């Protein structure tokens, strides 16, 4: 693992990272609340504790780049620029949601932000991301496709098939492995013969690196280096971010597979508290500025909930629309 | 009209691909052994030399990944043709085909579409046994979000691809292995053909024989035999298995009042069952006899010639089924 880099970012960009991580955390806490009162149904996978990864990676993408995510992707969509109100309306299943209410929590899409979706078959988005990159390469566009995947996906055959193809064909993909140590409830060392996941990418001759995923500054530095390399060479890059999910896998998970002590140990490395503390110590932020961020985020989320509450349901008559394009014969 | 060209079904498939590659820079072909080897059924032979390795892409043996790459490339401005060697191998790509290609438009609220064409060989008759001989196109026709084509003629082998590539949604094309060597004259002006209509390949008024793909030549041969006994069979070539052209099927059945479905797929839970059910639902009072079916025996396709033959629809069984509706 690389040593934690020094604070090289500007105050402004650090404040932006803090703000984004706070948005993601508070948004998901609100989703949890709304799930308890049955406003949100189905599966709900929270990434609380993992916010540094999506926040720092998105900070290094341009609007022209593409994003493919997993089913634990609320934060990814939010930081990428999809509005909180459209995401919340999607969680409610409303017609004004970012996927017209048809996808829900696991399937957020937004074409304007080149957010190519959340995929709920583990590993299912990986080859699709490589295909987006193949199209860019064949059409001579210098763009990066960021492909998020969990540690569980590394056990899937399609991960290995795609690693091979991406390296063989030199496709401009940033593979971001969000290694939270558990594939649902199965600990990494119970499912992988090689737990050093970035080593797997090296076997395909792909540049890879492992980074502390609880440190947003470290992830930012690594993502900055990775995207710069992809833009320069066109070749793929594998970035393993070692992180931890503080909450259950989904809302149906009694967490029998890990101890409270383990969770408490990881909570001490909370990426948001950690960044705020570093900034305080460096004299880069005042308490009233942190409070102002919290206040802004609170208002944004309240407005998103209001929007979702008031948004209409899609008419049942629309059910069969968009199975096929409507212009088609 | 200029002089006709005598070509094989394989040539027609190749001409369709070459047409597409010349016409549209966004089109490329990707699959196992499509380049240097020339395609496992020699469909893409010579294309690498003309179009180069960027557009004729040999892939590793990783059906799920390269099908997924096709989906992503289609979503990002390309018009890929993915070739999967046989329908049995496509089961390795089911996740990408069914969970992604078929769902993305609806699941994304119409923000993204997948204009991808997947071609594959299907069917039995070459003594390739139980892992290279199945007919699973009816299974794919079960899936909303996909379109499923079964070209049975030279014109369709050449022209369906053109229309499929212009379609904004994923289209699967099934080429029956026993058709590749069939040959005939292709009109010089042959081009794009519709992919939403069945075709009447032989007109008749006694019984409707409804079929597609590799069973079409057998069904036409059966109709010839029946004609010798004064039974005028009408042969309906479905061409498109999803969406089904109900109008043409029902119009034929209402005319002949009898129907036999000939399908190389298995009988249980099948496309033939679906067609039979639709006829019952919508034309029951036009029928003078129960709908009959000629399907493959409910076994994995065996290797020896005599057993393989016995497992498949053939001319005598089609003739017998047609006679049965007239008894």
State the CATH class of chain A: Alpha Beta
The name of the CATH topology of the largest domain in chain B is: Rossmann fold
Q: Report the sheet-strand fraction of chain A.
A: 5-15%
Number of domains of chain A: 1
Largest sheet of chain B: 7 strands, mixed
Mean pLDDT of chain A: 95
Report the sheet with the most strands of chain A, covering strand number, pairing sense and barrel closure: 6 strands, parallel
**Number of strand segments of chain B:** 14
Distance between the termini of chain A: 55 Å
Strand content of chain B: 15-25%
How helix-rich are the residues of chain B, as a percent range? 25-40%
Radius of gyration of chain A: 19 Å
The tally of domains of chain B stands at 2
Q: What is the chains' assembly state?
A: heterodimer
The H/E string of chain B reads: EHEHEHEHHHEHEHEEEEHEEHEHEHH
Query: What would you give as the CATH superfamily of the largest domain in chain B?
Result: Thiamin diphosphate (ThDP)-binding fold, Pyr/PP domains
Overall residue-averaged pLDDT value of chain B: 96
CATH class of the largest domain in chain B: Alpha Beta
Q: What is the helical fraction of chain A, as a range of percent?
A: 40-55%
Instruction: State the largest interface.
Output: A-B, 46 and 44 residues
Walkthrough of the structure:
The complex is a heterodimer of chains A (329) and B (327). With 329 residues, chain A is of the alpha/beta class. Helices cover 45% and strands 12% of the residues of chain A. Chain A contains twelve helices and eight strands. Chain A has helices spanning 11-36, 51-58, 74-80, 84-92, 125-138, 157-168, 188-191, 198-203, 216-233, 260-267, 271-281, 287-310; strands at 66-70, 115-119, 145-150, 173-179, 182-183, 186-187, 207-212, 237-242. In chain A, the strands form two sheets. A six-stranded parallel sheet of chain A has the order 2-1-3-4-8-7, sandwiched between helices. Chain A has a two-stranded antiparallel ribbon with strand order 5-6. In chain A, helix 9 links the parallel strand 7 and strand 8 (237-242). Chain A starts with 10 loop residues before the first helix and ends in a 19-residue tail after the last helix. Mean pLDDT of chain A is 95; it is low at 3-7. With 327 residues, chain B is an alpha/beta fold. Chain B folds into two domains: 5-186, Rossmann fold, CATH 3.40.50; 199-326, Rossmann fold. Chain B is 38% helix and 21% strand. In chain B, strands 3-2-4-5-7-6-12 form a seven-stranded mixed sheet, with helices on both faces. A five-stranded mixed sheet of chain B has the order 9-11-10-13-14, with helices on both faces. Chain B has a two-stranded antiparallel ribbon with strand order 1-8. Chain B is globular.
